[in-house]
Specification:
single chain; 156 residues; alpha+beta; Arc Repressor Mutant, subunit A; three-stranded antiparallel beta sheet; 7 helices; 3 strands; 13% strand; globular
């Protein structure tokens, strides 16, 4: 037990990629991620969630999905289930099991469930609709304001 640390994940330590299930990181690529730019485009922001170097397929599928969401405004479960057709690859399980949960945790997307009745009386269910969420913007604004207050207080 001597060398063990309570916060060390042994599996993550031996992995060749950085586990970013609950995080995002600003890479050191000074050319791509210029800190002086006033606004980054959405694709560059997706690169923070799913770095291309670590998970190229997730990066690609997330961009395909978000491009469609931007164009459509919302995506229902039927269209989501046909992702392999509009994604041109077998990426539906990756999208549903990895990409969407992370985008939802980060506050980029939200799920809404719509009740419906089937053609026969009594058959009803819920249909999932994925929409853009405003919480990611709020989180970033709060972070920026909090850090600006910290910087301001430290310079007094």
């Amino acid at each position: 037990m001597g060398d063990e640390h309570p916060f060390v994940d042994e599996e993550a330590r031996t992995s060749t990629t950085i586990v970013t299930k609950h995080s995002m990181a600003i890479p050191e690529d000074e050319q791509k991620f210029k800190k002086s730019e006033r606004a980054w485009n959405w694709e560059k922001i997706v690169d923070l969630f799913f770095p291309k170097e670590q998970s190229p397929k997730r990066n690609k599928y997330a961009k395909i999905f978000l491009r469609e969401l931007k164009d459509e405004g919302e995506i229902n479960s039927e269209k989501l289930n046909a992702f392999d057709e509009w994604g041109h690859e077998k990426g539906k399980s990756n999208l549903k099991n990895n990409i969407l949960p992370k985008l939802r945790r980060l506050g980029v997307i939200k799920y809404e469930y719509l009740e419906y009745r089937g053609p026969r009386e009594g058959k009803k269910g819920r249909r999932k609709v994925v929409k853009p969420a405003r919480s990611f913007t709020s989180i970033l604004d709060s972070m920026a304001n909090g850090w600006a207050a910290f910087e301001s207080a430290s310079m007094e």
